[in-house]
C-alpha cells in the first residue's frame, strides 16, 4: 500500500530523498517480516530437525542444530520406527477417516439446513436460526459432560461414532456460511428449474450444490482441519489403541515410549504435513472458510 | 417451487436433531447436573446448591478463576496487537507478500497438540532450545524454568496460543484494512498527517467493528484452553496454569465429579456470556459503523 | 477391532467346545483387563482354561491402564459390568463402596493362603485391611525399590547399597555421586532424583515407620516420622544439592532421568525395571536395593509400600462359581513366571520364587530384592478421592504432588507445603468421609 500511496502522490514531491526514504521503509518492513517469519517457522524447523536426530543426540548441551541422521545411511530412521513399531499408519488412517467423514457430513447437513434457511419460509425460522448461531457461544465444557454420559448410554465408546456424529450434526458455522452463500444465488435459476417441474430437493441438488462449490470447498477444508486436530473427544471416547487419532497418539507417545522426543517430533511432523499440503493446495478456500467463520 | 409444508423441516431435520441431542439437551442436563453429586458409577444424587457453595468457598476455585482472567488478559491483547501489527505489515504490495501472509497463517491450521509438544521441547529447562539460546547467545546466566515456574507457566501457555492464532487474527484485520477506502487515508496524508496519525485517527476508527469482532472471538477462545495446557503443563506447577476449562476437564474426567464440574462449566459459561453481552452494550461508545 | 476379532475367535472356540461337550450347558464369561500388549499372553491362558473347561467361553477385552478406568466407570454406569475384571489398589475402595464388587470371602475361606504374599493383601480387604472380607483376589503386586547405577558407584569407589543402609550412608553416597565437572552449578550426574510423585515419596515415609493418613484412613494427618521422611527427601535437593529440582528436569520424562545417567540413584515402583532396561540398554550396569531404612523406624512400625493388581467379580454375574474357578486359575502357582514381566511379582510364591522369574540373564541381577517386600507387612495411602488429593495423572500438577514439587523447587518450605496439602487433602477427604 505504501507503493500505491506513492503513485497517488503528486509528481512534484517525488524527489530523490523520498525515494531513499521509501527504500529505507521497505527494508525495515522486510526486516520485520523476516523476523516474524523466523518466529513462526522456528518451532516447525526444530520439530523437523529433532525428528531427524539420533535419540542419543537429543539431550546434548548446547543443542545441535544439525539433523544428524541425514548424514547416515538411515536418514529417516525415526519415521520408520513410528510406522513399523508404533502403528502410525493406522492413526493417520483413523484421523483421515474421521476428518473426511465429518467434513463430507457437514457439507451435507449444513447445505440442507442452509437451503431451508435461505430459500424457504416456515414458522420459527428466525428463532431457529438465532438459536443455531447462539450455540457457537456455548463453551464445549458445558455440553461435553452430558455428551460423554450419552455416549456411555449409547455404548459408543471405542467406536468412531462419538468422534463423527456430534461434529457432523451440529455445524452452526457451516450452516451460517452456506445460508449466506445461497442467498447470493439469483432466484432466476430455481424459478427456471421450478418451471420444469423440479421439486425442492432437485433444485437443491441440481442447482444450488453445483453453484456452491467454492463455499462447500471452504466448509470442507475447515471442517477437515478442525476435526483432524481435535483432541478432547478422542481423549474421552477412545481407549482402544487401534482407534487412536493422530493427536491422541501423540499424547500417548509422550508417556509410553522411550527416547520420546525424536519419535514424538517425527509424529508431530507427520500430523502437520497433511494439513500443510492441504493448505498449499487449497489456500484460497481455507482462508475464505476460516475468515467467514468470523466476519459477517 | 411446489412443496408440502413439511419440506423445510425435512431439510432441517439432521441439523435440528443434532442441535437437540448434542446442544440443547446437554445444556439442560449439565444445568441439572450442577445441582447433583454424580460420580458416574452411581446414579446422581440431588445436592441443591452444594456444588456452587463448595466452589465459592474453595481457594482453588478463586485461584483458577484468577488464572483464567490472567490468561485472557495476556492472550486477548497479545493476539490482537500482534495480529494487527502483522496485518498492517502485510497490507501492502511488496514482492513476496503473499508468501508471508500464507506463512503467518500456517500455525493456525496445524494441530495444537503437535505444536504444543514442539514448544514443550523448546521450553525444556536444561535441554531446550530457548534456554540454551538465552545462555549461549544472550549470555543470560540463569534463564527461567518456563513450564515449571509459577510465574512463567501461564505466560508460556499464552505465548503458544498467541503464536498459533496471531495469523488468523491477522487475516481478519487484513480484510478489514482492505475494505477501508484508500482515499480517506491519502487525504489525511495530504493534510499533513504522519503515518501514525493517519493510522490512529483514520484507520483505527474505521477498523473498530473488526476490532470489536476480534475481541469477542479472542475472549471466547481464551476461555477454552484445553489442548495446549494438557500437552504443555497439565495445569502445573502446583496449579499455576490451571484455567477453568482445564479444571472442568480434571474434575469431570479425572476425579469423576460430574456435578461439580458442571457447576464450574456453567460458571465459565456465565462469565464469558456476561463479558460478551457487556461488550455488546459498550460497543456504541467506541465502535464506528460506517 | 481386535476386540471384536478376539471375542469372535473366543466365541468360535467356545462353540466348537460346546458342541463337543454336547449335553453340557454353555457358560459365557466376560473378562476385562488392562495392558493390551499382554493380549497374546492372556489369550493363551484363556485358551488353556477353556480347553480344560469344556462349555465355558471367556470373552476377553483389554484397554491400556490410562483408559481402563473411564471405560470401566462407563460400564458400571450402564449397569453392564463384565463378570470378571482387573482391579487396582487405587480404585478398589470406591468400587467396593459403591457395591460394584462381589464379596469373595466365602470362596477365599476354602483356600489355603500360605502360598500367597498375604502381607500385600490389605487393600483387597474391607472394611478392615487386616481382618475384613476380601472383595478381589491379587494376581500380582509391585513395590518401590532403590535403583542404583553400579558403574557410577564403582567410579566413586563406593560399596553398593546394602539391606541395612541408613539414611546417613545413603546421603554420603549421594554426595559422592554428585559430579559437577565443569563447575557450572548444574551437575552432569546427580546422586539422586525424586519429585512429588507417590511412588517416589511414600516409600521413605513407610520405611521410617510413618503414616500420612490417620489410623482410620479418613484424614491426612502425617505422623512425626512421616514429616521426618518428607524433610529428608526434600532436603536432598534443597539442602544438599545431591538431586536436581523437578524444574531443571522439565522436558525429560521422569522415568528416564535415571536410565539416561543423569542421576545415579532413584526410588520408584519395581515396574520401572522394564523401562530402565529399554532406555539404559547396555550403557551402564545397574542394580536394585531396598529403600534405606529410616532412623525412627522400629520393626513394629516399619512398613513396605506394596500395591496389588487384583481380579474382581461383578456382583451381578450369573456364574459366580465358574468366575471364582477362573480367578483361581489365573492366580495359581501353576502360572508361568514369564507371564510376569520385569518388576511385577506374582501373588503366588511358587511362581515368584522360581529361577525363571529372577531373569538372571538380564539387569538388574538381583530381582529377589523385590520379593523381600512381599514378606513384610505392607501399607498404602489409597483412599477415595486419592487421585485428587495426591495429585495423579492429568492432575499430577496439583494436590500433594504439586505442593511437594514447590518444596523441591525451593519456592515453599516443607512446613508451608504441608500445611497446604493437608488442608486441601482433608477438604477432599471430608467429601468422601464426612
SSE topology sketch:
The complex is a heterotrimer of chains A (296), B (290) and C (434).
Chain A lengths: L1 H7 L7 H36 L25 H8 L3 H32 L5 H10 L5 H15 L6 H9 L2 H12 L3 H9 L4 H12 L1 H17 L2 H6 L8 H11 L3 H22 L1 H10 L4
Chain B lengths: L6 H27 L2 E2 L7 E2 L3 H8 L1 H32 L6 H13 L2 H12 L5 H8 L16 H26 L3 H9 L4 H28 L4 H6 L11 H10 L4 H29 L4
Antiparallel strand pairs in B: 1-2
Helix pairs in contact in B: 1-12, 3-7, 3-9, 4-7, 7-9, 8-9, 9-12, 11-12
Chain C lengths: L1 H19 L6 E8 L4 H14 L3 E8 L1 H13 L6 E5 L3 H6 L7 H4 L16 E2 L6 E2 L2 E6 L1 E6 H6 L11 H11 L20 H9 L17 H15 L7 H4 L15 E5 L2 H9 L5 E4 L14 E2 L1 E7 L6 H12 L13 E2 L2 H4 L2 H4 L9 H8 L2 E2 L6 H6 L7 H10 L5 H19 L2
Parallel strand pairs in C: 1-2, 1-3, 10-13
Antiparallel strand pairs in C: 3-11, 4-5, 6-11, 6-12, 7-8, 7-9
Helix pairs in contact in C: 8-9, 17-18
Kindly describe this structure.
The complex is a heterotrimer of chains A (296), B (290) and C (434). With 296 residues, chain A is mostly helical. Helices cover 73% and strands 0% of the residues of chain A. Chain A is built from 15 helices and no strands. The two termini of chain A are 25 Å apart. The relative contact order of chain B is 0.13. The model of chain B has no long low-confidence stretch (mean pLDDT 88). Helices cover 72% and strands 1% of the residues of chain B. The radius of gyration of chain B is 23 Å and the shape is globular. Chain B has a two-stranded antiparallel sheet. With 434 residues, chain C is α/β, with parallel strands linked by helices. Chain C is built from 18 helices and 13 strands. Chain C has helices spanning 2-20, 39-52, 65-77, 92-97, 105-108, 150-155, 167-177, 198-206, 224-238, 246-249, 272-280, 320-331, 349-352, 355-358, 368-375, 386-391, 399-408, 414-432; strands at 27-34, 56-63, 84-88, 125-126, 133-134, 137-142, 144-149, 265-269, 286-289, 304-305, 307-313, 345-346, 378-379. A six-stranded mixed sheet of chain C has the order 2-1-3-11-6-12, sandwiched between helices. Chains in contact: A-B, A-C, B-C. At the A-B interface, helix 1, helix 2, helix 4, helix 5 and helix 6 of A face helix 1, helix 3, helix 4, helix 5 and helix 6 of B.
Amino acid at each position: 500500500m505504501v507503493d500505491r500511496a506513492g503513485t497517488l502522490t503528486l509528481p512534484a514531491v517525488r524527489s530523490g530523498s523520498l525515494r531513499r526514504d521509501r527504500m529505507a521503509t521497505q527494508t525495515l518492513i522486510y526486516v520485520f517480516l523476516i523476523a516474524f517469519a523466523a518466529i513462526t517457522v522456528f518451532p516447525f524447523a526444530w520439530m523437523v530437525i529433532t525428528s531427524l536426530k539420533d535419540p542419543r543426540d537429543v539431550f546434548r548441551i548446547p543443542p545441535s542444530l544439525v539433523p544428524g541422521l541425514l548424514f547416515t545411511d538411515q536418514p529417516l530412521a525415526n519415521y520408520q520406527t513410528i510406522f513399523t513399531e508404533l502403528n502410525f499408519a493406522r492413526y493417520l488412517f483413523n484421523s483421515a477417516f474421521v476428518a473426511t467423514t465429518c467434513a463430507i457430513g457437514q457439507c451435507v447437513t449444513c447445505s440442507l439446513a442452509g437451503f431451508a434457511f435461505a430459500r424457504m419460509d416456515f414458522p420459527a425460522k428466525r428463532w431457529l436460526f438465532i438459536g443455531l448461531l447462539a450455540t457457537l457461544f456455548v463453551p464445549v465444557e458445558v455440553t461435553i459432560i452430558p455428551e460423554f454420559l450419552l455416549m456411555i448410554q449409547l455404548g459408543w465408546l471405542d467406536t468412531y461414532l462419538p468422534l463423527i456424529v456430534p461434529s457432523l450434526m451440529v455445524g452452526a458455522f457451516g450452516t451460517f456460511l452456506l445460508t449466506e452463500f445461497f442467498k447470493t444465488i439469483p432466484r432466476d435459476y430455481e424459478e427456471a428449474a421450478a418451471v420444469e417441474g423440479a421439486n425442492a430437493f432437485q433444485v437443491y441438488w441440481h442447482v444450488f450444490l453445483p453453484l456452491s462449490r467454492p463455499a462447500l470447498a471452504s466448509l470442507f477444508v475447515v471442517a477437515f482441519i478442525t476435526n483432524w486436530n481435535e483432541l478432547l473427544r478422542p481423549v474421552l471416547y477412545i481407549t482402544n489403541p487401534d482407534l487412536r487419532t493422530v493427536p491422541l497418539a501423540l499424547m500417548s507417545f509422550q508417556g509410553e515410549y522411550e527416547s520420546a522426543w525424536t519419535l514424538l517430533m517425527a509424529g508431530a511432523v507427520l500430523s502437520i504435513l497433511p494439513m500443510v499440503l492441504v493448505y498449499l493446495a487449497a489456500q484460497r478456500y481455507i482462508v475464505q472458510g476460516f475468515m467467514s467463520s468470523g466476519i459477517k | 417451487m411446489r412443496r408440502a409444508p413439511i419440506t423445510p423441516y425435512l431439510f432441517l431435520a439432521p441439523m435440528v436433531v443434532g442441535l437437540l441431542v448434542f446442544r440443547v439437551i446437554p445444556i439442560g442436563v449439565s444445568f441439572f447436573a450442577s445441582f447433583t453429586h454424580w460420580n458416574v458409577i452411581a446414579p446422581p444424587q440431588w445436592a441443591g446448591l452444594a456444588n456452587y457453595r463448595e466452589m465459592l468457598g474453595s481457594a482453588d476455585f478463586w485461584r483458577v478463576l484468577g488464572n483464567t482472567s490472567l490468561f485472557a488478559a495476556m492472550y486477548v491483547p497479545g493476539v490482537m496487537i500482534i495480529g494487527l501489527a502483522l496485518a498492517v505489515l502485510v497490507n501492502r504490495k511488496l514482492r513476496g507478500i503473499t508468501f508471508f501472509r500464507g506463512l503467518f497463517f500456517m500455525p493456525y491450521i496445524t494441530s495444537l497438540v503437535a505444536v504444543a509438544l514442539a514448544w514443550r521441547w523448546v521450553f525444556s529447562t536444561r535441554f531446550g532450545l530457548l534456554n540454551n539460546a538465552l545462555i549461549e547467545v544472550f549470555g543470560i546466566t540463569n534463564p527461567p524454568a518456563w513450564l515449571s515456574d509459577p510465574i512463567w507457566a501461564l505466560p508460556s501457555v499464552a505465548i503458544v496460543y498467541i503464536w498459533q492464532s496471531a495469523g488468523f487474527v491477522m487475516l481478519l484485520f487484513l480484510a478489514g484494512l482492505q475494505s477501508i477506502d484508500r482515499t480517506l487515508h491519502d487525504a489525511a496524508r495530504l493534510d499533513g498527517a504522519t503515518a501514525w496519525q493517519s493510522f490512529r485517527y483514520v484507520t483505527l476508527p474505521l477498523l473498530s467493528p473488526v476490532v470489536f469482532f476480534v475481541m469477542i472471538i479472542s475472549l471466547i477462545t481464551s476461555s477454552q484452553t484445553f489442548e495446549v495446557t494438557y500437552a504443555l503443563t497439565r495445569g502445573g506447577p502446583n496449579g499455576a496454569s490451571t484455567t477453568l476449562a482445564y479444571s472442568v476437564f480434571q474434575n469431570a474426567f479425572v476425579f469423576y465429579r460430574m456435578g461439580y464440574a458442571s457447576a464450574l462449566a456453567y460458571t465459565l459459561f456465565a462469565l464469558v456470556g456476561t463479558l460478551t453481552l457487556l461488550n455488546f452494550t459498550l460497543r456504541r461508545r467506541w465502535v464506528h459503523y460506517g | 477391532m481386535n476386540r471384536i476379532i478376539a471375542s469372535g475367535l473366543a466365541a468360535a472356540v467356545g462353540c466348537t467346545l460346546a458342541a463337543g461337550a454336547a449335553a453340557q450347558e454353555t457358560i459365557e464369561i466376560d473378562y476385562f483387563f488392562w495392558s493390551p500388549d499382554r493380549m497374546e499372553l492372556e489369550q493363551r491362558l484363556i485358551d488353556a482354561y477353556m480347553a480344560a473347561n469344556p462349555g465355558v467361553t471367556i470373552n476377553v477385552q483389554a484397554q491400556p491402564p490410562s483408559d481402563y478406568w473411564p471405560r470401566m466407570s462407563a460400564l458400571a454406569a450402564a449397569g453392564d459390568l463384565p463378570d470378571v475384571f482387573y482391579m487396582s489398589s487405587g480404585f478398589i475402595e470406591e468400587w467396593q463402596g459403591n457395591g460394584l464388587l462381589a464379596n469373595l470371602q466365602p470362596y477365599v475361606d476354602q483356600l489355603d493362603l500360605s502360598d500367597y504374599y498375604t502381607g500385600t493383601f490389605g487393600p483387597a480387604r474391607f472394611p478392615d485391611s487386616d481382618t475384613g472380607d476380601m472383595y478381589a483376589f491379587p494376581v500380582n503386586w509391585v513395590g518401590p525399590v532403590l535403583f542404583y547405577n553400579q558403574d557410577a558407584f564403582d567410579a566413586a569407589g563406593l560399596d553398593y547399597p546394602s539391606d541395612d543402609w541408613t539414611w546417613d550412608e545413603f546421603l554420603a553416597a549421594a554426595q559422592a555421586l554428585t559430579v559437577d565437572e565443569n563447575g557450572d552449578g548444574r551437575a552432569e550426574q546427580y546422586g539422586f532424583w525424586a519429585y512429588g510423585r507417590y511412588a517416589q515419596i511414600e516409600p521413605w515415609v513407610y520405611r521410617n515407620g510413618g503414616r500420612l493418613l490417620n489410623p482410620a484412613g479418613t484424614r491426612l494427618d502425617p505422623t512425626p516420622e512421616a514429616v521426618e521422611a518428607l524433610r529428608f527427601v526434600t532436603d536432598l535437593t534443597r539442602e544438599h544439592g545431591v538431586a536436581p529440582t523437578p524444574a531443571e528436569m522439565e522436558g525429560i520424562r521422569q522415568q528416564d532421568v535415571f536410565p539416561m545417567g543423569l542421576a545415579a540413584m532413584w526410588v520408584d515402583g519395581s515396574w520401572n525395571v522394564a523401562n530402565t532396561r529399554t532406555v539404559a540398554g547396555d550403557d551402564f550396569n545397574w542394580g536394585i536395593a531396598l529403600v534405606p531404612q529410616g532412623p525412627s523406624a522400629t520393626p513394629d512400625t516399619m512398613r513396605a509400600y506394596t500395591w496389588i493388581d487384583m481380579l474382581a467379580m461383578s456382583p451381578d454375574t450369573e456364574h459366580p462359581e465358574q468366575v471364582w474357578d477362573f480367578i483361581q486359575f489365573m492366580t495359581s502357582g501353576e502360572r508361568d513366571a514369564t507371564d510376569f514381566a520385569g518388576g511385577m511379582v506374582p501373588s503366588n510364591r511358587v511362581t515368584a520364587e522360581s529361577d525363571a522369574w529372577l531373569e538372571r540373564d538380564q539387569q538388574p541381577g538381583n530381582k529377589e530384592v523385590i520379593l523381600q517386600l512381599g514378606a513384610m507387612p505392607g501399607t498404602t495411602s489409597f483412599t477415595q478421592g486419592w487421585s485428587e488429593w495426591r495429585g495423579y495423572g492429568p492432575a499430577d500438577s496439583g494436590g500433594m504432588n504439586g505442593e511437594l514439587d514447590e518444596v523441591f523447587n525451593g519456592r515453599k518450605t516443607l512446613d508451608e507445603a504441608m500445611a497446604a496439602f493437608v488442608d486441601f487433602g482433608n477438604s477432599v477427604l471430608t467429601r468422601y468421609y464426612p
